[in-house]
Amino acid sequence: MLRWAIIFFIIALVAAVLGFGGISGMSFEIAKFIAIIAVILFVVSLLVGGMRGRGPRV
């Protein structure tokens, strides 16, 4: 998922350099949204993994 955010960010940078303001802004917003979703899923994964814990080693 983070890979998609990076791809859209690169598209936004290229579009900004070439002067396509609308495409650049839209790609940046998509990249930002996907990056936020990735961070939220990462935090949820950390919390669930921490609550589940590991059993005692024998």
TrEMBL record:
The chain crosses the membrane at residues 5-24, 30-49. The keyword Ion transport does not apply. Belongs to the UPF0391 family. Keywords: Cell membrane, Membrane, Transmembrane, Transmembrane helix. InterPro entries: DUF1328 (IPR009760). This is UPF0391 membrane protein ABIE19_002020.
